[in-house]
Amino acid sequence: MKTYIISLFIIAAVLFTTCYSGQKKDNHLSEDKHEHSEDDGHNHGEKESEHSDEILFTKEQAKSVGLTTETVSKGIFLQVLKTSGQIQAAPGDEVTIVATSNGIVSFTNPSITDGSSVGAGRSVVTISAKKLLEGDPAVKAKIEYETALKEYQRAESLIKDRIISAKDYEQAKLRYETAKTAYQAQASDITASGVSVTSPISGFIKNRMVSQGEYVSVGQPIATVSQNKRLQLRAEVSENHYKTLKSISSANFKPAYDNVVYKLSDLNGRLLSFGKASDRQSFYIPVTFEFDNVGDIIPGSFTEVFLLSSPQENVISVPVSSITEEQGLHFVYLQLDEEGYKRQEVTLGQNNGERVQILSGLDEGDKVVTKGVYQVKLAAISSVMPEGHSH
Fold first, then answer.
1. How far apart (Å, rounded) are the C-alpha atoms in residues 62 and 338?
2. For residue 94, is pLDDT > 90?
3. For residues 204 and 175, what is the distance between their CA atoms, to the nearest angstrom?
């Protein structure tokens, strides 16, 4: 009996040891499997996140939107002082047509408006006073001239016989000369409909100062004609920047009515002068440039002005068109390969209207998108990077 009990005890111990080993092995396999599963998930996550910030933009898409890029490199960037200003006509390129007689204005071309072209010596308006109570001054001038001429001729014959005094003769001669001058001033411009007023230069009507059928007096401005060949850019600079004015050499400007940035260096521009003192009312110092008007630049228009001064070397800059803004932060888009792009945050420096200085975020050799930026931005929102795309 004792031997039987000992045998049962030995068998139970063996069974317990076997079950414990099997459970331990199963737990170990389970742990290994779980660890392996975690490793696979981590590696797969790394693989997915490797290009999670990459934007897919195919070559066909880039071609259709005319996408262009620029390779980043360091260069010279002129210091910029941004301000505002106005485009003005250069002296001598603009004249004011004035009335040469009293009367009612009638434009030669009733549809003439601001911007209409006129030629030198061409009639702009006709002034008539035929129906006015005071009478037509042109007709009156002719009558006065003819009357004065007859009196002068009579005085010449009488003075020879000493029938009139020398004083009477001189008075008759003076009246004649005065009437002759007044008549000849209008004689060449007198037409059947009135006195014709012509433009002394070729150009375009900058502004009309009177309306059709309006009464005008002698010397009253009727219209301004501008040749528009040379224009002036007058910038207003705060007196706080007075010390930097001496280093200003050129400028860029962008009119309020246009998105085009004009460079004086491309318009045969030059610095004329800068004020030595500020206006007591505005506290601004004028800086004046002159340039050729080779584009659609409107005299009198207001504009943003980017004054250019001392050069800075080893500066990274990109076209203004490359920059996008989101929630106060600025970004550019970099081309990684033929169809891969990436959004890159940058810190901006000075802006000359055409290019902007980059203080951080870009390195030499980076390829920045300069045209088609908006389309790449849309692709960043809508596109998903396909699996298997690699570099």
1. 9
2. no
3. 40
